[in-house]
Amino acid sequence: YYSCFSDICFGDSITPISSEVQAEEGQAVTLICNYNTTSTGTQYLFWYRQSPNRSPEYLIQTDTYSGSNRKDGYETRVDKDSKRVWFKISEPGAADGAVYYCALRPTVIWSSRAVLVNLTVTQFHLYS
Question: What are the start-end ranges of the H helices in the chain?
Fold first, then answer.
């Protein structure tokens, strides 16, 4: 969201630390986004997943008031001082290989404030 006055624009943004992340099956993985906003109120941050040939699905959210949230093997937390949000998948499986979106509220998944991280999950084999 951007607003302009006298050719000076202010806006919110959110960007991933890395746009490509690799994980091993069963090994925890964390995705990280930095955000910036001109708003001084509570910020709401969302995570979505889009599997191949599927619509995006909402996974979890957090906000700068509560700071963290856990749900269904996912964990997210936000640090309002560093303006960074983390998303952790405890035990990723093959089905978790997808495009993930971190978004800053108010949001529409395809807006300029939703950005993607492509997560590839590979099988890990331990041989003795």
Answer: none
CA distances, 44 to each of 1, 107, 118 (Å): 14, 9, 22
Q: Provide the CATH number for the domain formed by 13-122 in this structure.
A: 2.60.40.10
- Prediction pTM value: 0.76
- C-alpha to C-alpha distance for 123 and 38, rounded to whole angstroms: 42
Q: Starting from the edge strand earliest in sequence, which strands make up the sheet with 84-89, in order? A: 13-16, 29-36, 84-89, 74-79, 68-71
Amino acid at 63: D
Torsion of CA 18, 20, 22, 27, to 10 degrees: 50
Nearest one of 43, 14, 18 to 109, comparing CA atoms: 14
Q: Which two tokens stand for residue 97?
A: 């290989």
Three-state secondary structure call for residue 81: coil
pLDDT, one tens digit per residue, over 15-47 is 888 888 888 889 999 999 999 888 778 889 999
